[in-house]
Amino acid sequence: MEVACVWERYKLKEIPCHVHTMPGLLKVLETFVACVIFVFISNTSLYMDQPALERCMAVYSIRFILAVVAMLMDREEWANRLPISFPVFHLGLTLLSILLQFTALVLWLLYQLDEKYGGQPQQSSDVNCIDRTTNGMWAWEQRLAVAVLTAANLLTYTADLGY
């Protein structure tokens, strides 16, 4: 939001900086949402000992790294070193991101919120529930927050691809 406000207020559209472009703003948003997801998945009991959910963790980490690489590669001296043009590189990263994010969303929803796969479809009604994490948030709320943020990031990647 801060970048968008600065962009609008100071009319920085003429300055050749990736962050001041719509794809740049989308990359910043994608990276920010990834950081928020990392906060919610700091409770390792949500995904440990479940290979499908550990794959989701790998996807979140890989996506974060790829978004940072994409932002760094836009620098003039680095983008020229690519064997392909930067827009093609960016398109490939975005397509890969959509694929990874979609699989993470499906796996997270299945294994966290579907009883068939050991998930918990709704919040426990027990007030003395022992499913509380150390920071005071219910584990189910964390599962749901990660699912919603993963879906939001998938939409952001799709908007990035469309743009």
UniProtKB/TrEMBL annotation:
GO terms for cellular component: cell-cell junction; plasma membrane. InterPro entries: Marvel (IPR008253), MYADM-like (IPR047123). It comes from the Eukaryota. It is found in: Membrane. It is a multi-pass membrane protein. Belongs to the MAL family. Residues 18-163 form the MARVEL domain. Its main location: membrane. This is MARVEL domain-containing protein. The lineage of its organism: Eukaryota, Metazoa, Chordata, Craniata, Vertebrata. Keywords: Membrane, Repeat, Transmembrane, Transmembrane helix. The chain crosses the membrane at residues 28-48, 55-73, 88-111. Coiled coil: none annotated.
